């Protein structure tokens, strides 16, 4: 079993992206999914990343990042909204299990973001506890609009960034771990059709975040 104490946040991030690349290209290795791994992880778990993602059925973390048993400590809610139980779970992954990386995973065509936009534009808000989800996503949608962002994918990215910031602002455990270089929190935006996971937020990793359209602009500049 990999000793995560030897992994830096950058190592963990690179491992995650390598698995996603295998998934995108149709060459998954399905690591750590056999009987030997099952027996190895039965006494204890040693994940290398906390994955806090949306509950969407198309966002199965171990599949899209080509990982297996004991690799990822997964927490999921609709629209990756958080409460005390989510914060406690993520802090457990970092402070007790020693994960050097926390990933907030959002995606295009997010139902929670779409429902929030509809409630703000048309009303009324959904009933039951779905309304609570909408209320927790609302600050992100309002912030996106205040910044002049109107496209659905731009609003999703803003919600991911807002979630990353909220995690670090609310959790002293995460803030201290980042300050000491022991962990990083990143936000990834997943494309359902392509299977790609794009970095949109970084707290503590130090990787350049490219805004939508930057790749196209860079390509045009290189062609001049």
TrEMBL record:
Xref: CDD domains: beta_CA_cladeC (cd03378)
UniProt key word Transmembrane helix: no
Keywords linked to the UniProt accession: Lyase, Zinc
Coiled-coil segments on the chain, per record: none
Protein name as it appears in the record: carbonic anhydrase
EC numbers, comma separated: 4.2.1.1
Reactions the enzyme catalyzes: hydrogencarbonate + H(+) = CO2 + H2O
Described purpose of this protein according to its UniProt entry: Catalyzes the reversible hydration of carbon dioxide to form bicarbonate.
PANTHER family, per the entry: CARBONIC ANHYDRASE, CARBONIC ANHYDRASE 2
Protein family (similarity comment): Belongs to the beta-class carbonic anhydrase family.
Domain of life: Bacteria
């Amino acid at each position: 079993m990999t000793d995560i104490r030897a992994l830096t946040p950058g190592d963990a991030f690179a491992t995650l992206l390598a698995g996603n690349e295998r998934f995108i290209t149709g060459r998954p290795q399905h690591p750590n999914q056999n009987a030997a791994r099952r027996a190895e992880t039965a006494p204890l778990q040693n994940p290398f990343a906390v994955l806090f993602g949306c509950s969407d059925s198309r966002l199965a973390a171990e599949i899209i990042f080509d990982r297996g048993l004991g690799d990822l400590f997964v927490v999921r809610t609709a629209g990756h909204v958080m409460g005390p139980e989510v914060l406690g779970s993520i802090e457990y992954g970092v402070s007790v299990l020693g994960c050097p990386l926390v990933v907030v995973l959002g995606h295009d065509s997010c139902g929670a973001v779409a429902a929030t936009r509809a409630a703000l534009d048309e009303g009324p808000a959904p009933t039951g506890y779905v309304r609570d989800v909408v209320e927790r996503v609302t600050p992100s949608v309002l912030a996106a609009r205040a910044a002049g962002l109107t496209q659905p994918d731009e609003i999703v990215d803003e919600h991911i960034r807002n979630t990353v910031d909220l995690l670090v602002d609310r959790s002293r455990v995460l803030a201290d771990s980042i300050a000491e270089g022991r962990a990083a929190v990143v936000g990834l935006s997943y494309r359902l059709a392509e299977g790609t996971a794009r970095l949109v937020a970084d707290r503590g990793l130090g990787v350049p975040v490219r805004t939508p359209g930057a790749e196209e602009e860079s390509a045009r500049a290189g062609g001049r």
